[in-house]
């Protein structure tokens, strides 16, 4: 299934010009949305999730959604809530003592409900695709999967069945949305925290790109911005526990014997914060990726996408998204905290670790260099965020509903 996914994503333009154009179009919508608040405070998690989700959604379904589309908000809400719930103590207890905890109320039950709801939506969607399927015009990953399903059943039926399609689509949706969006949110927060670094990025954008549309090939001409994006990923460390793996054979590692079939959690924190590889592992320091002449330098411990045969299948897509969204936002806006606001870099709880939720407000508009200044109000603390999640009624509201977070 991994091989099918990677080759289909590649055929559909992942990491190439086709997707680059899609990302740039999405940037237009994102910038319009940011500008539309006209000075009123807004919470950006939902918007960033929607922008990142739209890229993977157009690869999967062949179209994008409006940021306010209720179906889209609902779907993102299920995924977002589940990613957060996986990090809660009750779900950790459930994973350890399943047969006991399953009888108790708590987040583990909500996770299942959310997964069922999301899968219902996906099943309805691909049923529609099935009705309109044209073998000679495969535009989406779902089309390609359905064509495979119709081919030689004896060879493919064990993989290309409906249940696998539902799981594949929901996994790609979750993997493609949450990770990219969390990283970008960290990027904006860190730019507010370190305005001088933000200014350096903007100067480089001005020098290399000016007011034209950022393209992937600009990246190699922009060592400072490249270093900042790498450092955002390293510092943000958004998948600290990685995905769980298991040994396929007996292994002896650093003197420890690990039998075949042992559950292994290869912590990414151990490399991303390794003091043997990073001078200031717990600080945000773009110099980790720059030499004394300002050239970009790689670091072998930079592994936010993990390593090996099961490393991130969307790495190329993610890198393109991060570069284009980040440069485009900083080309158009300056992000800054309201006077007196303290920017807390403590991550939120969850399987992935985005920053805690902030609301942005546009403070100054149209300053002389045509950028918009955005100010941040430090507001929702983590605890409050979880109150808001548990108060969610799945039938009528969405966990990260923008209205919910607006005052
Ligand atoms: C900043 C963005 C992203 C980060 C940091 C990230 C990170 C990761 C990590 C750490 C893993 C686990 C690898 C392992 O098990 O060793 C993973 C797996 C995966 N990612 Fe990403 N990812 C990102 C974006 C994306 C995007 C945009 C997609 C969309 C195509 C994607 C698709 C996947 C898939 C399908 C897997 C499972 C691979 C497998 O099990 O074989 N990721 N990602």
Automatic annotation (TrEMBL):
Q: Which cofactor does it need?
A: heme
Database matches in InterPro entries: Cyt_P450, Cyt_P450_CS, Cyt_P450_E_grp-I, Cyt_P450_sf, Cytochrome_P450_fam2
One Pfam entry for this protein is p450
Coiled coil, from the record: none
Q: Which keywords describe this protein according to UniProt?
A: Heme, Iron, Metal-binding, Monooxygenase, Oxidoreductase
PROSITE patterns named in the record:
CYTOCHROME_P450 (PS00086)
Q: Belongs to which family?
A: Belongs to the cytochrome P450 family.
**The name this protein goes by in its record:** Cytochrome P450
